[in-house]
Amino acid sequence: MAEYSSSELMCVHSARLLKDNDRVLVGVGIPNLACNLALRTHAPNLQMIYEAGVVGSRPSRLPLSIGDPTLVSGAAGVCSMYDLFTFYLQRGNVDVGFLGGAQIDKFGNINATVIGDYSHPKTRLPGSGGSQEIAAWADRCYIMTPHQKRRFPEKVDFATSAGYLNGRAQREATGVRGRGPLVVVTDLGIMEPDDRGELILTALHPGATYEKVKENTGWDIRTISDLRVTDPPTEKELRILREELDPRGIHLKGGG
Amino acid sequence: MTMMTKIYSLKEAVQENIRDGDLLYCAGFTHLIPFAAGHEIIRQQRKNLTLARATPDLIYDQMVAAGCASKVIFSYMGNPGVGSLRIVRAAVESGQLEWEEYSHFGMISRLQAGATGLPFIPMKQTAATDLERNNPNIKRVKDPYGGKDVIVVPPLNPDVAVIHVQRCDARGNAHIWGIIGEQKEAAFAAKRVILTAEEIVDESVIRSDPNRTLIPEFIVSAVCLVPHASHPSYTQGYYDRDNAFYLAWDKISESPDAVRLWLEEWVYGVADRDAYWKKLGSETHNRLKVIPRLAAPVDYGNY
User: Fold this and answer.
1) Which of B17, B85, B148, B303 sits a CA distance of 20 to 30 A from A198?
2) Nearest to B30 among A66, A74, A136 (CB)
3) Cα–Cα distance, B266 to B276 (Å, whole number)
4) Residues of B whose CB is below 8 A from A131
């Protein structure tokens, strides 16, 4: 079996969540690699949209920021950010959004704003950027993050973006169109929301255990009886990632 | 008829248009960030500015470090693609800098309201209410047509917007291409607009491609010819982003002494952007060169 880093593992499993013709709002870093991997494998008609206002992007090099010029050269279209957030996202023209943050809680709510009190922050994080609206209005949201206890508290200090709030019904009552965080990909496995919107473990990566997931989760995480084991990254997926997408290992070397 | 030009040196434009205490919007989402103007403002030691930008980026990190600001208004406070924006962050954490925060959509909706003369702009609910609870400018109003409540934000009307463009004419009709983030909105929202341009071209060049004009002359106060004004950010088609500098700043900004030395050498120690660019040297110039990729010509028709 091929050797791979935990970043490569998360990237591959995120790519597999994308469908051909999906309109995906791409972030930089691992989500960008995941989308470009999907484009080069099973989703040749993936529509990559960037919050800076780029639509149908075909980056020919690894974008190093959310507004890299390579996103524009060869893209299908460019618009203002106001147009991007209204015509595309608010109107319902985005199928998939990728999200991340310092904390993700039991109901998939995300904190990217502050640790501690908002007015007197212990640690000030970057803040929402586009994520508050992406989490609400993209049809499907996927979260990618290493599995560490401090990243998965029972409740976030600050909800920058909504998951299922305190339960699925509460999110639905707000009328937001997006279906919420449907999958959380970590380096140990995959979590998905149950009927009430609580994240439960539904798959383990090869070599990982439920015990290890429990040790690294801040709530008493439940699992299902037919827990599956994920298919490891293929040689082809790894070759595309390493040779075509991130040959210098800028994003992929992380996480051992 | 005499040709009206608004051409000034950047030094004059800052002297004339930016005052202590102003609300300033230096436009550009990653692209076309007007660093040259930021450095000139530092050299002229403006104080108590309110600095608004979706992403404060290194330009505001440097201006906060130089003591120009008393407040920031933002929606993503990071070093894009690198990590933390250390100086702004430390000033916020220690309470030295006042701040006001939105999501990107909230921030650009404020500009859109300011640019279009509206008292507020509605946005659909997002189900995330913590920011709304902490920022009294974000309000919830009843949909008069019976739908769900909407979230509203008030207009943002900066005293001054600084906008870097690829090219404009001497009157200020400006072409921008590549990522057009919030430049047009910032320009129409502001009371005064300073343009810095890679090139000042004849009016006929602008009129050959009117669809590319985002900013009309009559909202522009000053036009400044400042090639390379957005380094270490980039200008599409002219030069690349200096990612190495964004990484270097992550280290420099860890130490107040290193920041002081950097400002001394690269801001106070150079007269203007030409001197700064020359000082960067040929290795950097070559590294940031861009291979041309021309658009197919469009035919407007000779009517």
Assistant:
1) B148
2) A66
3) 7
4) 103
Amino acid at A84: L
Is residue A28 scored above 80 in pLDDT?
no
State yes or no: pLDDT of B245 exceeds 60. yes
Tell me which of 3.90.1150.10, 3.40.1080.10, 3.40.50.300, 2.40.50.150 is the CATH number of domain B10-119+154-208+216-287: 3.40.1080.10
The catalytic residue among A3, A8, A51, A198 is A51
Regarding an ipTM greater than 0.90, the answer is yes
Name every chain B residue with its beta carbon within 8 A of the beta carbon of A81. 29, 54, 104, 108, 181-182
Segment A69-79, tens digit of pLDDT: 999 999 999 99
**What topology does CATH give the domain A6-245?**
Glutaconate Coenzyme A-transferase (3.40.1080)
Asked if B127 and A171 come within 8 Å (Cβ–Cβ), the reply is yes
| Subunit contact B77:A72, Cβ cutoff 8 A | no
Calpha distance A192→A202 (Å, rounded): 6
Q: Which of B55, B124, B164 to mutate to test the interface with A (most CBs of A within 10 A)?
A: B124
Q: Spell out the alpha helix ranges (H) of A86-195.
A: 131-137, 168-173
Return the exposure string of B73-90: e unless at least 16 CB atoms fall within 10 Å of the residue's CB, then b.
bbbbbbbbbbebbbbbbb
Lowest-pLDDT choice from A27-36, B21-30, B113-122, B243-252: A27-36
The pLDDT of residue B85 is above 90? yes
Q: How confident is the model at residue B80 (pLDDT cuts 50, 70, 90)?
A: confident
pLDDT at residue A62 in the model: 86
> Domain-by-domain residue ranges, chain A?
6-245
Question: What digits encode the pLDDT tens for the residues B86-121?
Answer: 999 999 999 999 999 999 999 999 999 999 999 999
pLDDT band at A256 (very low <50, low <70, confident <90, very high): very low
CA-nearest of A237, A162, A230 to A202 is A230
> Is residue A218 exposed (0-12), middle (13-18) or buried (19+ Cβ within 10 Å)?
middle
**B275 SS3 class:** helix
Residue A90's pLDDT band, with cuts at 50, 70 and 90, is very high
Domain residue spans of chain B: 10-119+154-208+216-287
**A235 among known catalytic residues:** no
Contact A199, A107 (CB under 8 A): yes
